[in-house]
Write a structure and sequence with these properties.
By secondary structure, this protein is α/β, with parallel strands linked by helices. About 30% of the residues lie in helices and about 25% in strands. It folds into three domains: about 1-100, NAD(P)-binding Rossmann-like Domain (Rossmann fold, 3-Layer(aba) Sandwich); about 110-310, 3-Layer(aba) Sandwich (UDP-N-acetylmuramoyl-L-alanine:D-glutamate ligase), CATH 3.40.1190.10; about 320-475, Mur ligase, C-terminal domain (Protein-Tyrosine Phosphatase, Chain A). A hairpin with a 2-residue loop joins strand 10 (about 170-175) and strand 11.
Length: about 475
């Protein structure tokens, strides 16, 4: 079968393309922006890519077009269609489907699907669960909305029955407004947490809760719902009706709980110690993610003890507090001959709660040193300003907060005013980088948070730091005056 994928360079659709190719299909695709690293990954798999959504691609005559949710029926300023290929597909009456629907029919059918849903932590928990099953010898298939460092790829078919998938609540396609996850028909469903998000498609939290309940309706009676016992929103979802075993984690009275600090803790199952996790991943959020993954793995026969041991070797996911650089910084304000280096992190946090959790996790891990939080309001929800009032709360544990204000319909300076002089807003990336470098001290931790590329700010910062360090050294060790 030949499939042509519209929007192929997105994380989900790129993973789908890799799975389709591994299954033996001929795969081609198109996107508005075809660039590395996704373009390199796809071409390495023998997938031909086309820049843009031109109607002439109809001549490729695939067996079916697979349409990503980036595609819409919107028009450009001159009235012409933004996605002419989609218009040509509709006019010609040729077969098309959504990515989640194609995946359900051609990859997931007959598999034991373990789906990880939630506002936060989906990617990390999916990667944890996949690594646990891999370590237990189950050789699972998976599709993760990121790149797990333990595997180096975001998707693979696997050789046994288990398939782990990140279950997104965002809508499926312009012609199917259900959440993606209702297509996956899981036997094991993880409900990690649930807050209001995606203000561009959901009116309120109740609307998202309704979609989560649609997911519960698809889990068989022999299935398992793994649910965060700390979340009132998920309790409301369960009260709408549940037909499967419920296994809770997190709360004091939950089935799966943790005893100890997030970096080293005992896993308790109904109060009984069943394993110990010792790892480098800080933060209460990662501890909860681990409990969810352990509870889900138990449903396919992996003991909590084996799961806990596996998590001790878990490397993490790219762009989840990924250290991009540690650079020397001879700060003239630092005493001693060996000042602390500057550390630059890349993190995917973009919802206020995720931003606060990321900063809190780093604070608990480093104990000392300043945290400089750098973020851009890039998600559709943040661009709409639906959560701007929560930004001071999300950033209050940072020593300084830097915001890129480009092309917003609201004023971030006003939103961040409660932080006073600790909040710095810049209209351009170059100015933002300059503002950060001017305020640096040895031992600072710079956390760049965005669900996009952030204009390459990480590399811009690294290059600026490398260029600025010699000048700082000159200030710190000025030449002795001539005698």
């Amino acid at each position: 079968m030949h499939i042509h994928i519209l929007g192929i360079c997105g994380t989900f659709m790129g993973g789908l393309a890799a799975l389709a190719r591994e299954t033996g299909h001929r795969v081609t695709g198109c996107d508005a922006e075809v660039y590395p690293p996704m373009s390199d990954q796809l071409r390495a798999l023998g997938i031909d890519l086309i820049e843009g959504f031109g109607a002439d691609q109809l001549k490729l005559a695939p067996d079916i077009f697979v349409v990503g949710n980036v595609v819409s029926r919107s028009c450009l300023a001159d009235g012409s269609p933004k996605f002419p290929l989609m218009e040509a597909i509709l006019d010609a009456g040729v077969p098309y489907t959504s990515g989640p629907q194609w995946l359900a029919e051609h990859v997931l059918r007959g598999r034991h699907v373990l789906a990880v849903a939630g506002t936060h932590g989906k990617t990390t928990t999916t990667a944890m669960l996949t690594w646990i099953l891999e370590s237990a010898g189950l050789e699972p298939g998976f599709l993760v909305g990121g790149v797990p460092l333990d595997f180096g790829v975001s998707a693979r078919l696997g050789v046994q029955k288990s398939f782990v998938i990140e279950a997104d609540e965002y809508d499926t396609a312009f012609f199917d407004k259900r959440s993606k996850f209702v297509h996956y028909r899981p036997r094991t469903a993880v409900l990690n947490n649930l807050e209001f998000d995606h203000a561009d498609i959901f009116d309120n939290l109740a609307a998202i809760e309704r979609q989560f309940h649609h997911l519960l309706r698809t889990v068989p009676s022999t299935g398992r719902i793994v649910v965060n016992g700390l979340e009132e929103s998920l309790t409301r979802v369960l009260h709408q009706g549940c037909w499967s075993e419920v296994c809770s984690f997190g709360a004091a009275v939950s089935d799966f709980t943790a005893q100890g600090e997030p970096a080293t803790f005992e896993v308790l199952v109904r109060g009984q110690p069943c394993g110990r996790v010792e790892w480098d991943h800080g933060g209460r959020h990662n501890q909860l993610n681990a409990l969810a993954a352990i509870a889900a793995a138990q449903h396919v026969g992996v003991s909590p003890q084996i799961s806990a041991a596996a998590l001790g070797q878990f490397k993490g996911v790219k762009r989840r507090m990924e250290v991009r650089a540690r650079l020397p910084w001879p700060d003239h304000r630092t005493t001693g001959s060996t000042p602390e280096p500057i550390t630059v992190y890349d993190d995917f946090a973009h919802h206020p709660t995720a931003m606060r959790t990321t900063i809190n996790g780093l604070r608990r891990k480093i104990r000392s040193g300043r945290i400089l939080a750098v973020f851009e309001p890039r998600s559709n929800t943040m661009k709409l300003g639906a959560m701007k009032s929560q930004l001071p709360w999300s950033l209050e544990e940072a020593d300084l907060a830097f915001c890129h204000a480009g092309n917003l319909g609201w004023n971030p300076r006003e939103a961040l005013a409660p932080l006073g002089a600790n909040a710095i807003v810049a209209d351009t990336l170059d100015q933002l980088v300059c503002d950060i470098v001017q305020r640096l001290r040895g031992g600072d931790h710079i956390v760049c948070m965005s669900n996009g590329g952030f204009g390459g700010i990480h590399q811009k910062l690294i290059e600026s730091l490398q260029n600025a360090a010699p000048r700082q050294a000159e200030v710190r060790h000025p030449p002795r005056p001539a005698e």
